[in-house]
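quick one, 122 residues, struct below
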Amino acid sequence: MAKSEKIKAYERGARLEKFAALYLQIKGYKILKVRYKTPGGEIDVVARRKNALVFVEVKGRKDVSSALESVTVRNRLRVESAARFFIAAHPQFSGFDMRFDVVVFAPPFSFRHLDNAWRARS
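---
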């Protein structure tokens, strides 16, 4: 991938993460972090809804089904690892339920939110 393509992909990803955060906010989630980076990986969106801490993976692809398929086991493990770092750094959330969601986008205006998309591996 050429450098300009990487920059475009990065910018597109940042834009989709902002859209996902706005969408979740409209649905009643409190957005805590966007693009939260840890030594264990990055979480696209960290949100809170009632007593649940929600870690959201955001993907954009040519269609919704390929976006959903792009959330690999490796992605999930990275998000889970980063979630553990988040909770360690923010102990006020240690008693909260933890949930992993996925928000996917496909042009021109398709998107889907899967709440509780997967369960963490211990």
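The longest strand covers residues 97-106.
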